[in-house]
Amino acid sequence: MKIQDDILSYREMCDIEGVQTLQRGMNYRLNPRYTVILMSQRSNAPYQDKIHEDGITIEYEGHDVSRQSYQHNPKDENQPSKLPSGRLTQNGLFIKAVEEYKNEKREPELVKAYEKIMDGVWSLKGIFELIDYKIVNDGKRNVFRFILKLTYKNVLGNKDYKQVEISHTRIIPSEVKKEVWKRDKGRCVICGETKNLHFDHDLPFSKGGTSLTVKNVRLLCMKHNLQKSGRIE
After folding, report:
1. pLDDT at 165 over 60
2. Are 49 and 39 spatial neighbours (Cβ–Cβ below 8 Å)?
């Protein structure tokens, strides 16, 4: 199983999730055990996703109505929770999951978040718990914003999942990942491998390192990432 900050191609991401394509950003229960979201913080991204200052919380914007014609602009309409038929949209399914969690009817929905770093380069941002939502007016319409918090638990029960403590990790910002990828030329800085790469904290957060600077993040292949992990006490 891929772990937080692993680097993937679009094809690899689809293969992991067992689908031919991933066209929607919100994919409620794509897998019977979890939901999948695709996000981007690039300047030309269609939605305003962001990371909170605590470094472990994502604010993920809900999705718009479908475009009805060339002249139709979905950005002019409130984001819907239901279709005209009454069926729940992806926004509505997320809202229902939050409300049931807050009413203690279920555990928080598990969400795998993949982030587009640049064309052809994706990163598994981590596994999150969907814990809240709010409705925000952006000046001309209402949009949903879903709150997801990084979980340290081996929530999917896979023995290969690297368990982390929240106090010892932080989400690496998108711009840092983009600059690191360019600086390291898409290769492991130790051996030059171009496959099975991972964004690595040179100095772990638990030892005073930071995710906020390019200087403390580098590309490592699976072999050297595992070797480094084995040396950290």
Report:
1. no
2. yes
Instruction: Produce one character per residue of 190-226: b if its CB has 16 or more CB atoms within 10 Å, e if not.
Output: eeebeebbbbbbeebbeeebebeebebbbbbbeebbe
CA–CA gap between residue 221 and residue 231 (Å, rounded)? 16
pLDDT at 212: 64
Q: Please count the structural domains in the chain.
A: 2
Residues 147 and 193 in one domain: no
Residue 151 sits in the same domain as residue 179: no
Instruction: Provide the token pair at 35.
Output: 């939901």
Start-to-end C-alpha separation, the chain: 23
Q: Dig out the tokens for 28 from the structure.
A: 């409620």
Confidence of residue 187 (pLDDT cuts 50, 70, 90): very high
The range of the structural domain enclosing residue 227 comes to 172-233
